[in-house]
């Protein structure tokens, strides 16, 4: 026979246990009913591009305010009517975008950039490099110099922002040696690839605050420090200096210089006649004996001691150094990677700009210098 149980006595709970249990319950309730989206605002600032002239490199992550409401993504407004493009860009604090397709890194190119007297806080740099071994090497060297300048260099040398792109297509030529690059049979495929690279770089980096775009090849190693101010002073839609090359003259046994960029030219009846007989996809090339166009080349218009600000109109331009009003690109002028009126890349760009009402100009007595391989 079972014996009846006596009254049950509960052990008294300590106050500390109650406090800890209550805190645990509050934490569980907050975790369950609180926002499931953590606040990534700090990490977003660190990982996403904060510069308004370039697209974000990371997606916008929602953050929650103290009231529990999800904050909307940021909206930035621009009024292009407030963007000035004047002959005195420095005094008007106009933003400059310097764009450089780069296959090889030359230290003299970077050193020359640092010497530019235009306020670096108004300059954005953009680069595009091929996805091959040479491109990898150039990217590594470029990043070293960027870190040295942007992180450790004097404040005056630091640029507003720097954007590096890698091409999403293979280079058409296995080598970037000067002799290989300039073979006539390689020109169409090489320059079509260059046009694609320039367009990718332009369309990715051109921002609503940009006033001028300076195209500067990676092998331009010497320019006047006032290059941007000097070219903008002419207030032309497109303007190109004359590109030369320093070299050792073995006959005279002295350092000498020679014309380099033959893509700055004025058209000729001969060239127009040649074009009229060409196939739809054929292109005219300049500087080759097998295709004599008899155009007037700005490279040969240089006069020693003459006015460096002397202007000439141009029908074709090169890309070694070229200052362009941002509105020309905004109007749709780009670098055709196909035969455009039998012209391609930079020369096709000049033709396209002219069709849009923008006339190119050149400065035959204002020189910049190309690296001599």
Largest sheet: 10 strands, mixed
Oligomer state equals single chain
CATH class: Alpha Beta
CATH architecture: Alpha-Beta Complex
CATH superfamily: Spore Coat Polysaccharide Biosynthesis Protein SpsA, Chain A
What fold name stands as the CATH topology?
Spore Coat Polysaccharide Biosynthesis Protein SpsA, Chain A
Mean pLDDT: 86
Q: How much strand content do the residues show?
A: 15-25%
* Overall outline: elongated
Pfam families: Anp1
Subcellular location: Golgi apparatus membrane
Family: Belongs to the ANP1/MMN9/VAN1 family.
Protein name: Mannan polymerase complexes MNN9 subunit
Give a written overview of the molecule:
Belongs to the ANP1/MMN9/VAN1 family. It is found in: Golgi apparatus membrane. Keywords: Golgi apparatus, Membrane, Signal-anchor, Transmembrane, Transmembrane helix. Residues 47-74 are annotated as: Disordered. InterPro entries: Mannan_Polymerase_Subunit, Nucleotide-diphossugar_trans. With 373 residues, the chain is α/β, with parallel strands linked by helices. It has a single domain, classed as Alpha-Beta Complex (Spore Coat Polysaccharide Biosynthesis Protein SpsA, Chain A). The protein contains ten helices and twelve strands. The chain has helices at residues 15-33, 41-47, 107-115, 133-150, 178-181, 187-205, 227-232, 269-276, 326-330, 345-355; strands at residues 95-101, 123-129, 161-166, 210-216, 220-222, 238-249, 254-259, 265-266, 296-297, 312-314, 321-325, 360-370. The strands form two sheets. Strands 1, 2, 3, 4, 5, 6, 7, 10, 11 and 12 form a ten-stranded mixed sheet that branches. Strands 8-9 form a two-stranded antiparallel sheet. Helix 4 links the parallel strand 2 (123-129) and strand 3. It is elongated.
């Amino acid at each position: 026979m079972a014996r009846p149980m006596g009254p049950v006595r509960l052990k008294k709970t300590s106050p500390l246990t109650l406090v800890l249990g209550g805190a645990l319950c509050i934490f569980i309730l907050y975790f369950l009913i609180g926002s499931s989206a953590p606040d990534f605002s700090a990490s977003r600032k660190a990982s996403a591009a904060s510069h308004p002239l370039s697209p974000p490199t990371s997606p916008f992550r929602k953050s929650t305010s103290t009231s529990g409401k999800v904050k909307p993504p940021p909206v930035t407004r621009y009024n292009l009517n407030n963007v000035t493009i004047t002959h005195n860009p420095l005094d008007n604090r106009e933003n400059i975008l310097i764009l450089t397709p780069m296959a090889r890194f030359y230290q003299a190119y970077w050193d020359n950039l640092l010497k530019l007297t235009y306020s670096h806080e108004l300059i954005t740099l953009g680069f595009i490099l091929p996805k091959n071994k040479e491109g990898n090497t150039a990217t590594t060297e470029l990043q070293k110099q960027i870190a040295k300048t942007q992180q450790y260099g004097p404040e005056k040398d630091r640029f507003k922002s720097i954007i590096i792109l890698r091409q999403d297509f293979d280079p058409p030529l296995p080598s970037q040696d000067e002799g290989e690059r300039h073979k006539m049979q390689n020109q169409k495929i090489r320059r079509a690839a260059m046009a694609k690279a320039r367009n990718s770089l332009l369309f990715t980096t051109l921002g609503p605050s940009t006033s001028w775009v300076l195209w500067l090849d990676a092998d331009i190693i010497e320019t006047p420090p006032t290059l941007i101010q000097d070219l903008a002073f002419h207030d032309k839609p497109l303007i190109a200096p004359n590109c030369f090359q320093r070299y050792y003259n073995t006959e005279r046994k002295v350092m000498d210089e020679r014309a380099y960029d033959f893509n700055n030219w004025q058209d000729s009846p001969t060239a127009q006649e040649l074009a009229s007989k060409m196939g739809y996809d054929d292109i005219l090339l300049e500087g080759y004996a097998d295709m004599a166009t008899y155009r007037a080349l700005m490279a040969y218009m240089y006069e020693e001691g003459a006015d460096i600000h002397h202007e000439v109109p141009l029908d074709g331009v090169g890309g070694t150094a070229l200052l362009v009003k941002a509105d020309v690109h905004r109007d749709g002028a780009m670098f055709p990677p196909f035969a455009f009126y039998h012209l391609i890349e930079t020369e096709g760009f000049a033709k396209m700009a002219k069709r849009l009402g923008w006339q190119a100009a050149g400065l035959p007595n204002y020189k910049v210098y190309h690296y001599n391989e």
